[in-house]
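ok trying again, last paste got cut off:
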Amino acid sequence: MRVVYEHSHLGGSEILQVRYPEHNREIYEVIATVTARRSKPRREKTMEGQALYSPRDLNRQFLEAFRSRGYAQLRDSYTITVPNSEVSIPGAFKQIDFVKGKVLVEVQFGKYAFMFYDMAKFQYFFNENKADIGVEIVPCHALHSRMSTGVSYGEQLVYDIERLKRHFPSVPVKVILIDVDDPEQPETR
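nice, full thing came through this time. structure:
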């Protein structure tokens, strides 16, 4: 995979470069090691037989690459209660897939709501003093159009963060948009 665009929110990119240069280097190494393969057959009648990039395969490769570099999962469990209510819901949690020190990394090949929810999780762990910065790795629009339906794209996330200004998230974030190394890669069937 290759990086096609980066967005620095509240100095996220600069903080990563200055305070966490080793993490910054590792993140780019991980992205470079992931190889996108067209392996998921299309089901639409108009494009039957063509193959798409598989989010599941990409997620597996990112998981292996980050874990091999010492990144672990961060999970906070809690019980949900609300004011003026007897209801108590145990077993709730917030989770980040890849954490090393105070650098949080999420790779998101899901619907747009999950990209934006990652921002809320970054904010939560930042508020809990368990993070200094969040890094969101997402597909660019060109890659999104060659993946299964439901996958969103990073340009929408950057657009929304820009319009919210400094209000949300109020944690430094670096958004990295990725694409395949060779957009003309032949399909495998």
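cool. The chain has six helices and eight strands. Residues 13 and 124 are 20 Å apart (CA to CA).
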